[in-house]
Amino acid sequence: MEEKKRDLKRRDKKGRILRNGESQRADGKYAYVYTDCFGKQKFLYSWKLEPTDPLPAGCRPCQSLRGKEKTIQRDMDDGIIPYGGGLTLSDIDFEEKQIRVNHQLQPTRDMKYVIEDTKTTSGTRIIPMTDKVYECFKRIAANRKKPKRKTTKSRILSKIKNRGHFTKIFTKNG
Known about the structure:
Layout lengths: L1 H7 L13 E3 L5 E6 L5 E6 L18 H13 L14 E2 L4 E4 L2 E4 L5 E4 L8 E4 L2 H13 L9 H5 L10 E2 L5
Antiparallel strand pairs: 1-2, 2-3, 4-5, 5-8, 6-7, 7-9
């Protein structure tokens, strides 16, 4: 009976159990499928399942799939949209119908995201929202899933680093 249950679990070519959303392609690359905060299906890929896995010959160094999963989950829990330019609900002033642009989201090679000051002072600005944009953001905010944990001011302030730049690095220990 126990042996039958073992056979029902999906496994990779090395015999390791794959979690929900994880799969291994025929070429050996791992894939992870998830649903973003807008309800769209997104995919992550990596040649390594775990950080300790060896990299196949001829492949560029990369973060493990499970490391990428943790980063994406943390970003979603914190209300950060990794592919959305770093705009969060706190940047949108619904009462004044304005968008504050005072930082930018920069991806690093190992799938971490860094929030930095804008490159120039002219990049920091307040953009007025048209009625269409206002309605769109209201709809997005209303349909967005609530974060599982609350981001506190002290948690954000503890991530401010490096010569007065506003930097937030999402890491395992973050």
